TrEMBL record, chain A:
<dbReference type="InterPro" id="IPR035906">
    <property type="entry name" value="MetI-like_sf"/>
</dbReference>
<protein>
    <submittedName>
        <fullName>ABC transporter permease</fullName>
    </submittedName>
</protein>
<feature type="transmembrane region" description="Helical">
    <location>
        <begin position="124"/>
        <end position="147"/>
    </location>
</feature>
<feature type="domain" description="ABC transmembrane type-1">
    <location>
        <begin position="88"/>
        <end position="278"/>
    </location>
</feature>
<dbReference type="Pfam" id="PF00528">
    <property type="entry name" value="BPD_transp_1"/>
</dbReference>
<feature type="transmembrane region" description="Helical">
    <location>
        <begin position="200"/>
        <end position="225"/>
    </location>
</feature>
<keyword id="KW-0813">Transport</keyword>
<feature type="transmembrane region" description="Helical">
    <location>
        <begin position="159"/>
        <end position="179"/>
    </location>
</feature>
<keyword id="KW-0472">Membrane</keyword>
From TrEMBL, chain B:
<dbReference type="InterPro" id="IPR017871">
    <property type="entry name" value="ABC_transporter-like_CS"/>
</dbReference>
<dbReference type="Pfam" id="PF17912">
    <property type="entry name" value="OB_MalK"/>
</dbReference>
<dbReference type="Pfam" id="PF00005">
    <property type="entry name" value="ABC_tran"/>
</dbReference>
<dbReference type="InterPro" id="IPR003593">
    <property type="entry name" value="AAA+_ATPase"/>
</dbReference>
<keyword id="KW-1278">Translocase</keyword>
<feature type="region of interest" description="Disordered">
    <location>
        <begin position="312"/>
        <end position="334"/>
    </location>
</feature>
<feature type="domain" description="ABC transporter">
    <location>
        <begin position="33"/>
        <end position="264"/>
    </location>
</feature>
<keyword id="KW-0472">Membrane</keyword>
<dbReference type="InterPro" id="IPR047641">
    <property type="entry name" value="ABC_transpr_MalK/UgpC-like"/>
</dbReference>
């Protein structure tokens, strides 16, 4: 009797284990499928960028890999009339400039929004947020006219300015919740010790939110770097960035997909490098600040 | 020194006037101090409604009240962290009300310690000194070491706040508040985050340090035990108004109103509605009556207050229980018959909850440790007229 029952329990346990295992395998399979799906465009880009120009339209995977596309893109090979290195530098300048300016304006703004409620403070914050969810295309045409009139078209200043729409709300909103999480008593203790409000901000509050600054700066940099619409409409050559610049290879008599692919891959490098260097702040930074409040 | 087991709670007792502190602090006075919070679309909130408090130099005043009574707002106004709606704050006779916090020279030990996490204890102490740039690095280090010595945290100087126990953090916070040699020291709920064991030692330490250094101190707390044991005088606050200022004994023995009587004392005072009757009695219901302190007008509706430890409980028929029974529940010697509804024997005493004939409120009595009572037992209770309180039923103010 007990033997039978024991046998049954064992059998049931075994079937449960099999079921669990099958589920795990199915889940893994689904993940692998998704992984392939998500990664395939990247793989395709890498392959494209390594293909010689004459094998560009072959659909099979055997070809002689060459770095010619990269040489051309970086200006070391034949001249295609596209100053990609310049675009790359432009991207760096406007993205870093936009993030830098946003930090200078946004950190004190975020601190003020976290510490004081003043008349219209919530409206101000909401307006700032609305920059993020309003499509850029709704403002781009008036901006284009304005930029033409003001002489900001195709300039660094103009690009850095317009990218504030992207970076500033992000920095203010995320940093606000960081500052709100700090105990105000830390700064109050400093005030009582004889520090000014400004000193309390710089010497007490700011050092404690460094992980947040690192995380949000990276995020803002990536958004600025990846922005397409603003440089597409508001620049032509002087201040054009890689996102638009990479497409220049598609113009002309025949589209050079290999060059576009190489250019795109090169332009992934800076955000990637940044992400790798500050990744230890990232998980803590993003989960600590942005999710709450 | 161990604290004596006092007959009446845990008072450290007021310092005798013959023992003035070695004073480093300034006298502090609050004059008609008010704070009203105004926000659009909502009625203004009067957090503090004109309070007057005077502290002698070196005195420790406990500001005691339930949460939301305005005591923290008062503390923050004194520190300069909150603007003042009206009234004045005088430190050493000079008004500081228009000065920013950094120019007031007031030290605050915050409830959550406010220690700067990235810095060591020594750096935390030095951080406060560095603000004014009065001292060179060498002098600062000397002062840090000196203060650490006095507070007893020398072995913690290299540690970071995260590695400290709550009691240690509290002492570091105190050292940080004191190192600038403030004119007035403010302690915000200093013991509230400590466990029972740390609470006792830290309380004793606080008392010793405050007495040694002689700082004029306001202790803000909602914990009566903390206030009673540490303070020279106590101000009981409610709804932004000071209800009573006095020594622990004054507050305890002569509460100014029902709120103070009820708020101070553990277990809480018995508050029973009744009417003052002729012959020095307060009649509760039927024949149930307790002796009334002299001076209460006959016929007045009152609330009678008797502390559980001021009631004496004897078993029915025991000597001293009174023999001349005059009616149900009443006795000529003032004994009242009651029925036991619960009894919690504790270590040094017990707490009995009794029911009186015709009275809805239960009567809580502190018993000696030797008494064992069961539910339903009949007992006799006597109250000492010296220790009963009567309050006006309408206003709640003490009548005697």
């Amino acid at each position: 009797m007990t033997e039978v029952r024991k046998g049954r329990t064992a059998k049931r346990a075994a079937s449960r284990a099999v079921k669990r295992r099958a589920l795990a395998i199915a889940a893994d399979g689904a993940l692998i499928l998704y992984f392939l799906f998500a990664l395939f465009p990247v793989v395709w880009m890498v392959i494209l960028s390594l293909k010689p120009a004459n094998e560009l339209f072959s659909t099979y995977f055997s070809f002689t890999p060459t770095l010619d596309s990269y040489r051309t893109v970086l200006g070391a090979g034949e001249d295609e009339g596209v100053p990609f290195v310049r675009f790359f530098v432009n991207s760096l300048v406007v993205s870093l400039g936009a993030v830098g300016l946003s930090l200078v304006i946004g950190l004190p703004a975020a601190y003020a929004a976290a510490r004081w409620r003043f008349r219209g403070s919530e409206n101000l914050m909401f307006t700032l947020l609305s920059f993020r969810f309003a499509p850029e295309l709704t403002v781009i045409i008036p901006l284009f006219v304005l930029y033409q009139q003001l002489g900001l078209f195709d300039t660094y200043v103009g690009m850095i300015w317009v990218l504030q729409l992207v970076t500033l709300p992000l920095i203010v909103w995320i940093m606000r919740s960081y500052f709100a999480d700090l105990s105000p008593e830390l700064e109050q203790a400093a005030l009582l010790d004889g520090y000014t409000r400004k000193q309390a901000f710089f010497r007490v509050a700011l050092p404690l939110v460094k992980p947040g600054i690192a995380a949000v700066s990276l995020l803002a940099f990536i958004f600025a770097w990846n922005n397409f619409v603003f440089p597409l409409i508001l620049t032509s050559s002087e201040a054009q960035t890689v996102t638009v610049g990479a497409l220049s290879f598609l113009g002309g008599d025949r589209p050079k997909y290999n060059l576009t692919a190489a250019a795109a891959l090169v332009s992934v490098i800076p955000p990637l490098l940044l992400a790798l260097t500050i990744q230890r702040y990232l998980v803590r930074g993003l989960s600590f600040g942005a999710v709450k409040s | 020194m161990t604290e004596p087991a006092p007959a009446r709670r845990i008072f450290a007792g007021p310092r005798s006037p013959a023992d003035p502190p070695a004073s480093a602090g300034q006298a502090l006075a609050l004059r008609a101090l008010r704070k009203t919070y105004v926000s659009r679309g909502r009625p203004p909130v009067e957090a503090v409604r004109g309070i007057d408090i005077e502290l002698r130099s070196g005195e420790l005043l406990g500001l005691l009240g339930p949460s939301g009574c305005g005591k923290s707002t008062t503390l923050r106004m004194i520190a300069g962290l909150e603007s003042v709606t009206g009234g004045d704050i005088l430190v050493g006779g000079d008004s500081v009300v228009s000065l920013p916090a950094r120019e007031r020279n007031i030290g605050v030990a915050f409830e959550n310690y406010a220690l700067y996490p990235p810095l060591t204890v020594a750096e935390n102490l030095g951080f406060g000194l560095a603000a004014r740039r009065l001292h060179g690095a060498g002098e600062r280090a000397r002062r840090v070491a000196d203060m650490a010595e006095r507070i007893g945290i020398t072995d913690l100087l290299a540690a970071r706040p995260a590695g400290l126990s709550s009691g240690q953090k509290q002492r570091v916070a105190l050292a940080r508040a004191l190192i600038r040699e403030p004119d007035v020291l403010l302690l915000d709920e200093p013991l509230s985050h400590l466990d029972a064991a740390q609470r006792d030692t830290t309380r004793r330490e606080l008392k010793r340090i405050q007495r040694d250094l002689g700082h004029t101190t306001i202790l803000v707390t909602h914990d009566q035990e903390e206030a009673l044991s540490l303070s020279d005088r106590i101000a009981v606050m409610r709804d932004g108004v000071i209800q009573q200022v006095g020594t622990a004994y004054e507050i305890y023995d002569a509460p100014a109103n029902v709120f103070v009587a009820d708020f101070v004392g553990e277990p809480a005072i018995n508050l029973l509605p009744g009417v003052v009757a002729a012959g020095g009695w307060v009649r509760l219901a039927g024949a149930v009556r307790f002796p009334c302190p002299a001076g209460a007008p006959v016929g007045r509706r009152v609330v009678l207050g008797i502390r559980p430890e001021d009631l004496r409980l004897t078993r029915e028929g025991e000597p001293g229980a009174g023999t001349g029974d005059t009616g149900p529940g009443g006795a000529e010697d003032g004994a009242v018959r009651a029925t036991v509804s619960a009894h919690e024997p504790l270590l040094e005493s017990g707490i009995a909850t009794l029911t009186l004939d015709g009275v809805t409120e239960p009567l809580v009595v502190e018993t000696g440790p030797e008494i064992r009572l069961d539910r339903g037992d009949t007992v006799r209770v006597t109250a000492d007229p010296q220790h009963t309180h009567v309050f006006d039923a309408e206003t709640g103010d003490a009548l005697t």
